[in-house]
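In the lab's daily routine, each protein ends up as an entry in a very long ledger. A line of letters takes care of the sequence, but it says nothing directly about the fold. The three-dimensional part falls to structure tokens, numbers that each stand for a local backbone shape. The outcome of that step, for a single protein, is printed below.
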Amino acid sequence: MNTVGERLKTLREGMKFSQKKMAALLNVTQPSINRYEHGQSVPSIELLIKYADYFDVTIEEILY
């Protein structure tokens, strides 16, 4: 079963972005991206909306 963090990582890696580049695009820190991808922290709904908009997916695709 894929977790939210795994889906976020898959989206990022699909674009060949580093965590640092993703952090800059979303205006968060690289350690935050790392924590989201490893399930140590949960991104806010606002950040999930940014991810969804950037990758042209629905929030549901990220969450489920």
In short: The CA atoms of residues 11 and 55 lie 7 Å apart.
